[in-house]
């Protein structure tokens, strides 16, 4: 049985208390909300904070305000279940509710939060093992070792970004707000992620993710498609998020964004695929061109489920499925 290491557990009453506690704890501190990622990592000794600061009960982080006309702010502590079931999200942002519903299982969605999903640790077959297993291979570059077993000749960690909401938030152009003892700052979802399996976030350890802002609805369409072995529970081995902004005629694509997840340390924007769609109708030829562009860019490695070449082949199919679902709208 894997057990948690010893740590001090603190429960602030307000956001300002939480960030002060983190400032006092320093590098040995860690925020936790649902704990569905942090606690398993602690049991595997991938993360060993001395102080864990619970933010799950902070009222400011558990609100959803606004609507599709003005945009919506979602507190980072909102559970994935509440995100799926919130009437405004279901009505105005059904693609967000649908993407959240693909995450894990109902029990874990009751605990997990939108903020936790956006900050999810990168994953790899050589990293997501218990301590003794990792010690048996002399650890890996991401934690305690000096070799990336996925690509031994590389000095880069290739653990992949496997969070379902990340590609969609990047495609939508969502913004995230951080709070710390130094003040507040906002960044785009696309600017949050770094293409490195170790330093995968442009975020300081002392910063608390406070909320996520979804853009107003201005005629755009979006969808998320997920490839995994089972119909539930599993992390994605490929995620495809597409956003299309249409002209006034409702048929011509004015702007497009296609984001791939589950194949690289950061969500991958395929600008060549978007270029294949912009300026014309969403017809079969343009959709095939966009899918082919994504296939060319996708270069999954052998560090998650399924054979990597098959995962690459599936990129075409899932991009087409995503585009065809938007075509139907």
The CATH class is Alpha Beta
Query: How would you sum up the major sheet?
Result: 5 strands, antiparallel
- Shape from CA axes? globular
What integer value in Å does the Rg equal? Answer: 20 Å
Question: Strands of the biggest beta sheet: in what spatial order?
Answer: 4-5-8-6-7
* Average pLDDT metric: 96
Series of H and E elements: EHEHEEEHHHHHHHEEEEEEEHHH
How many helix segments?
12
- The number of strands is 12
> How far is it from the N-terminal to the C-terminal residue, by CA?
49 Å
Computed structural class: alpha+beta
Low-confidence stretches: none
How many structural domains does the protein architecture include? Answer: 1
Percent helix range: 25-40%
CATH topology: Uridine Diphospho-n-acetylenolpyruvylglucosamine Reductase, domain 3
Report on this model:
The protein is an alpha+beta fold and 329 residues long. It has a single domain, classed as Uridine Diphospho-n-acetylenolpyruvylglucosamine Reductase, domain 3. The protein contains twelve helices and twelve strands. The protein has helices at 15-25, 38-43, 80-85, 87-92, 94-101, 106-111, 114-118, 131-136, 165-172, 271-277, 284-297, 308-328, and strands at residues 8-10, 29-32, 51-54, 64-67, 71-75, 175-180, 183-188, 208-214, 220-227, 238-246, 253-261, 268-269. The strands form three sheets. The chain has a five-stranded antiparallel β-sheet with strand order 4-5-8-6-7. Strands 9-10-11-12 form a four-stranded antiparallel β-sheet, with helices on both faces. The longest helix has 21 residues, at 308-328. The N and C termini lie far apart (49 Å).
């Amino acid at each position: 049985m894997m057990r948690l290491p010893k740590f001090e557990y603190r429960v602030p009453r307000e956001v300002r208390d939480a960030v002060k506690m983190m400032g006092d704890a320093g590098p040995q501190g860690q925020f936790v909300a649902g704990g569905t990622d942090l606690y398993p990592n602690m049991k595997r000794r991938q993360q060993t904070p001395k102080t864990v600061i619970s933010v799950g009960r902070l009222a400011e982080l558990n609100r959803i305000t606004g609507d599709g006309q003005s945009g919506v702010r979602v507190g980072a502590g909102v559970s994935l279940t509440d995100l799926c079931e919130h009437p405004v999200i279901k009505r105005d942002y059904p693609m967000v509710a649908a993407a959240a519903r693909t995450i894990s299982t109902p029990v874990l969605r009751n605990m997990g939060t939108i903020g936790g999903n956006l900050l999810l640790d990168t994953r790899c077959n050589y990293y997501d093992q218990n301590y003794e297993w990792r010690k048996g291979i002399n650890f890996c570059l991401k934690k305690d070792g000096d070799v990336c077993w996925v690509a031994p000749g590389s000095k880069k960690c290739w653990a992949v970004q496997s969070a379902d909401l990340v590609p969609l938030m990047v495609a939508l152009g969502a913004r995230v707000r951080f709070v710390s003892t130094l003040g507040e700052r906002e960044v785009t979802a696309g600017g949050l992620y770094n293409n490195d399996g170790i330093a995968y976030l442009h975020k300081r350890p002392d910063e608390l993710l406070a909320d996520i802002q979804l853009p107003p609805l201005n005629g755009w369409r979006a969808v998320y498609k997920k490839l995994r072995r089972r119909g539930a529970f599993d992390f994605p081995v490929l995620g495809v998020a597409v956003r299309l902004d249409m002209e006034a005629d409702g048929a011509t694509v004015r702007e497009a964004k296609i984001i791939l997840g589950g194949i690289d340390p950061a969500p991958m924007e395929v600008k060549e695929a978007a270029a294949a769609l912009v300026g014309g109708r969403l017809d079969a030829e343009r959709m095939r061109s966009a899918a082919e562009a994504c296939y060319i860019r996708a270069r999954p490695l052998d560090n998650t489920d399924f054979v990597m070449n098959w995962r690459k082949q599936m990129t075409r199919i899932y991009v087409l499925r995503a585009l065809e679902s938007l075509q139907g709208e």
